[in-house]
């Protein structure tokens, strides 16, 4: 087995200042910047992710961060009030709010996707 002290995820962004404002001010996460200009984003539950600037950044086409919520509709309302637009995916059974209602169909969690300012995919989900 691999012996480690902890783990974290990392992803790139186009504009580190814009990313810092989004993760701190829009999502309400604790964000610090280290001496190399890399963001340390504290996730709910105590895990961390780092975001680093990359000149040739290409947005992730998959979900890089999932945020578990108690009530998907409250989370969607909070995101919308903060100016976040939910993503719509052709062929996905999303409702008028952009939520895929998996619980009602006994097919997983209720989930909604949105993008950070660099185009990386994030989600809120409730199971």
TrEMBL record:
SUPFAM superfamilies the UniProt entry points to: Glyoxalase/Bleomycin resistance protein/Dihydroxybiphenyl dioxygenase
Signal sequence, renumbered to the chain: none
PROSITE patterns (alphabetical): VOC
InterPro entries per the UniProt record, alphabetical: Glyas_Bleomycin-R_OHBP_Dase, Glyas_Fos-R_dOase_dom, VOC_core
Domain of life according to the entry: Bacteria
Residue ranges of domain VOC in the record: 5-127
The name this protein goes by in its record: VOC family protein
């Amino acid at each position: 087995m691999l012996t480690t002290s902890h783990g974290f995820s990392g992803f790139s962004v186009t504009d580190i200042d814009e990313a810092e404002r989004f993760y701190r001010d829009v999502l309400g996460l604790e964000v610090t910047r280290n001496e190399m200009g890399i963001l340390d984003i504290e996730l709910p539950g105590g895990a961390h992710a780092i975001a680093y600037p990359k000149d040739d950044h290409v947005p992730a086409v998959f979900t890089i961060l999932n945020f578990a919520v108690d009530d998907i509709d409250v989370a969607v309302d909070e995101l919308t009030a903060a100016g976040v637009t939910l993503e719509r995916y052709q062929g996905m059974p999303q409702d008028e709010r952009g939520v895929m209602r998996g619980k009602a169909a006994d097919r997983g969690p209720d989930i909604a996707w949105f993008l950070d300012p660099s185009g990386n995919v994030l989600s809120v989900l409730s199971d």
